[in-house]
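Notes from the pairing session

We agreed to fold both candidates in a single pass and log them together. This is the raw record for the first candidate, unedited. Please don't reformat it; downstream parsing expects exactly this layout.

Candidate A
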Amino acid sequence: MDWKRDLDELIESTMAFVKDVKREPIPDLSAAMTTVEQALADTSKPELSRAVMPIVRPTSERDEIQQRISKFKAHQEKMARAREDYYLQVKAKMLAPVDPNPVRPKQSPPV
C-alpha cells in the first residue's frame, strides 16, 4: 500500500506549503475596484438586431421529440432523393450508346 503512504505524504507537504504561503494585501484595492466598476458601467449592452432571432424552445419534451423526428425524416427523404438521382445518372451512363470506332489521336513518330 505504498500509494496510501505517498498520498498521506503529499497531503502533509501540501498542508505545510499552504501554511508557509503568506498573503500579501493588494495595495490600493479601492482604486482598483473603482476602475473596474467604471469599466463595467461604461460597457453598453449590445442591442439585439432584428436578424438575430431568439431560439424558440419547444413547450414540452414531446414537442421537442416530434420536431427532431420531423427533421430526421426530412433529412432521410433528402438523402433518398439524392441516392435515386445518382442511380439514374449512373444508369444513363451505362446505357448510353458506345461508339464502336472512337477517334484516336495520331501518335507522333518516335524521336
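Candidate B (folded immediately after A)
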Amino acid sequence: MKLYRFSPIESEEQLLQAITYAHKACYELCLQVIGEYLPVAGNIGIFTHYEEEFQFLTALRRKLTDETVHYNHKYFKLLTPIRINAEDGVPAATYEYLYIRKPDPYRSQVGDVDFVMDPKKHQALAQSRVTGEFTKRARRFERVEENMIELWDPDIDVIPYIVTRSMSDTIASNKVVST
C-alpha cells in the first residue's frame, strides 16, 4: 500500500501533477470551509516525505526558480510561473513562488496553497478562532505573527491557508529579496 498520494516524486512531470492536485484540492477545501473561492496569494508548497525526494526536488527547484527572490529562504520565485487552468468549477490560478518542504513525520499532506482574504474579513474570521484549535475545520495558525488561518479536513490531504496579501506584496513589504 502506498502511504502518500504522490511521494516519492521523482520527475518534473510528477511535481506538476502534485502541484495541479494541491491546487484543486486546496480550492475544494477553501470552498467547503469559507463558502467561496478566494484568490491565491501566488505561492504553492509541495511536501516531501522522504529525504531522497527532498534532495531531488530541492535540486529541481533550483533549476526552476530565481533563488535571489524569496520569502524567508523558503518560497522562491519561479522563472516561469505555473498556470493552472479553470476546471470543473475550480478557478484558474497562477503560481509565481514554489516551496519544497522537508520531510515531516507529522505531515502526510501533498502540499499547501495560500489564499488571500480581505483584511477585515480575515480579522473577523481569525478572532472567531482559537489559536491552535480547529473550530469548524479552521484555526488560527500557531505562528500568530504570520497572521494565517489554516484550513483542515481529515479526508483531504492538503492544507490551505488564508492570508491578507499576496506573496509578491509580502516579499516587497519585508524587503527579503537577497542574494
